[in-house]
# Entry
Amino acid sequence: MSHNTTFCAQVQLGGWSWRGSHQTLGLTHKLRVPVISLPPSLSFSIGNIYSLPLKMMLEEVLPSRFSQLFIEAPENINRNPLFKNAITIKKELVDLKFSFEILRNFFSDKFLDVVQRIFHGKPISKVFLFERIITLIRKNYNEAKTQGKWTEPAGWSVLKAIMLINYLQKLGIIENIKNYNYMEITTSEKKTKSFNLDGFNEFVKANQSFLDSDIKVGVFAVGVLVRFLFDIQYASLNNTPFENKLRGYKLNPELLIQVYTEALDKIQKYQKSFYVYSDLREIVSQYFVIKQQDMNGMSNNELSFYFVAGLEMGRKFKNEKEENNQETKL
# Structure
């Protein structure tokens, strides 16, 4: 297939098919010289407003870039175990699959601009990226709290954001620290089995495209700790009053330090033990407390996102016995 291969587009509301079978980006398309078959998972519905601009953008994409955009990068991302049985559809656990719907959700009014930059390999500002990610998470969170209506769970939005971050990294649109070396926290003494230290270490090592610096690991771990506090409070009070301390996920370094110290104090009072979650506290000490000056290199939106990611994934690192017996212990 040469670069000047032409596309015949039939604009419709709905999916975009190759030979009428495979779908992606949102137009009905017929390729005169069929070369690539795109997997059905790369699909979403889209209105006519995007049809012609997207068709014009695609005509400028090199075949090698096309394969990278729609096959290689998505398939690589979808293989991550993090996205297996990650969401619930009609009461059934299903895999989360990458699609350009994710871009449209986060970028909405800037969707075409972002797609064009991705198609042509132009960088996107991390400040802009994390502003868009956390804005959607805050919006859904606030609507669920104040209006009582169903919104996409924050945990789903976090997973989609991680997918997006990974996708943009693989395409060279944003950079990450490729040589980051996470030094595992180990324990020689089993003071508590409540926190799954091995599971946490394995998670960080398996997701270093997302957790690619000490301070990101540290902020993420603070979110995990606060999730543990939420579970303790809910088991005791049927409520999570500490949630008010998070200010609608509008965090900054000073506020996050305050959240950590107050959360730790609350946990110790509830559990009546200085050593509770000692392994998790050691991670927070090494990667957050000692490294706290590194937060100055992150925007407040990026900081907030990594905290919310830890908050939403916290239960992954709670041992099953601890989770089942939480109410009994209190």
